[in-house]
Design a protein that fits this description.
alpha/beta; 12 helices; about 25% strand; Nucleotidyltransferase, domain 5
Length: about 350
């Protein structure tokens, strides 16, 4: 049995998820503890200012060294709260914070380049915790011709394979992604919570950060003309592999929603997330018997209700039904990927991650 911590901060920039996981023989997982620590407002605003933006390199460098201090604090606090002795944790897998992701090559200074950048210095985190730390998971995936995302499919196959049932695992974070099981087709379908959350922040002037229990969307009306216009984006018809992020769904994407009421805007954004997920499932070429949902969006009953209505022949489950808190899934995934890395085992076609010993 190996005890590993997974640390994840996603594209929504909500905060720091930490999961402590025991990994046993044949990847039997037991999640001992999980917590989410919101980013301080000043840190979140600074991260937004450097995410897919023209900015000063000094801000990126400072955040690269500041974030692991926050990650270490969140990890230490969870260990104390859950009464897990720090010395029993053998390894940390930390995703870091994505500030730019471009999985498809573009022309740049006369060459073709695909790139990704997650900040959060592994050497600092290892030094502060005294625990070997694995970071920078996405670079190796791009190095061998992958898109750098999604990476959660490795966990999906370990947890959800079934000898007789066709399944799709859906993770609804800032961006939504799916894994078809057993075919292994995996890709980002489009927006997850990011557009909804950004609209809520805009219309409430930051007083509310997400649509709690889907209440705003439930009171709103879907603006089908806008929805149909947004669904014309060629991305939703493109065959996988493909990846999406803040570069597509950041502040500029909100513009056509801003003439609507808050409720109608959030209702339409919720419908967009559901419609693009369903389109993505159809691109896999299978009608799944089971859809297994994780990520923050699984806590939105309005979104989940729309999803179930559009997939009447599919049983909709939560990762909770398999012993993994839906909010904790991505943090657990990076704990498992770190475990694979230190054993030099490939995940999704490559050994993913860079290892930092403690000093």
């Amino acid at each position: 049995m190996t005890r590993v911590a997974g640390i994840m901060s996603g594209t929504s920039l909500d905060g720091i998820d930490v999961a402590i996981v025991d990994i046993g023989p044949r990847y039997k997982l037991k999640v001992l503890a999980f917590s989410t620590t919101p980013y301080p407002k000043a840190v979140r605003n600074t991260l937004l200012a450097v995410s897919n933006a023209n900015c000063h390199t000094a801000d990126i460098a400072r955040l690269h060294f500041l974030l692991p201090e926050l990650y270490a604090e969140a990890f230490n606090a969870l260990c104390k709260q859950a009464r897990v002795p720090i010395k029993t944790v053998s390894l940390i897998g930390c995703h870091g914070q994505t500030i730019f992701h471009e999985g498809d090559p573009v022309r740049f200074v006369g060459r073709s380049v695909a790139s990704t950048l997650q900040i959060g210095n592994g050497a600092i985190l290892a030094a502060r915790t005294g625990i070997p730390t694995v970071t920078d998971f996405r670079s190796a995936h791009i190095a061998v011709g992958g898109k750098g995302a999604p990476l959660v499919p490795h966990l999906d196959h370990l947890l959800f394979r079934h000898p007789r049932r066709t399944r799709v695992s859906l993770n609804i974070g800032g961006v939504a992604n799916i894994t078809a099981i057993p075919s292994g087709i995996a890709f980002d379908t489009g927006p997850g919570n990011m557009v909804m959350d950004n609209l809520v922040r805009h219309f409430t002037n930051g007083r509310q950060t997400f649509d709690r229990d889907g209440g705003l969307a439930a009171r709103g009306h879907i603006q089908h003309r806008l929805l149909n216009l947004l669904l014309r984006d060629p991305y939703y018809r493109r065959q996988p592999p493909k990846t999406a992020g803040r570069e597509q769904y950041g502040q500029e994407f909100l513009t056509p929603f801003l003439s609507l009421s808050c409720e109608d805007a959030v209702a339409t954004a919720t419908a967009l997330t559901v419609a693009t997920i369903v389109k993505g499932i159809r691109l896999t070429g299978v009608e799944p018997q089971d859809l297994i949902v994780g990520g923050g969006g699984a806590q939105n009953p309005q979104l989940m209700g729309l999803l179930a209505a559009q997939l009447p022949n599919t049983r909709v489950l939560l990762t909770n039904d398999f012993g993994i808190d839906s909010d904790a899934k991505e943090a657990v995934a990076f704990a498992v990927l770190a475990y694979e890395c230190v054993h030099l085992r490939p995940a999704l076609g490559a050994v993913l991650g860079a290892i930092y010993p403690p000093n």
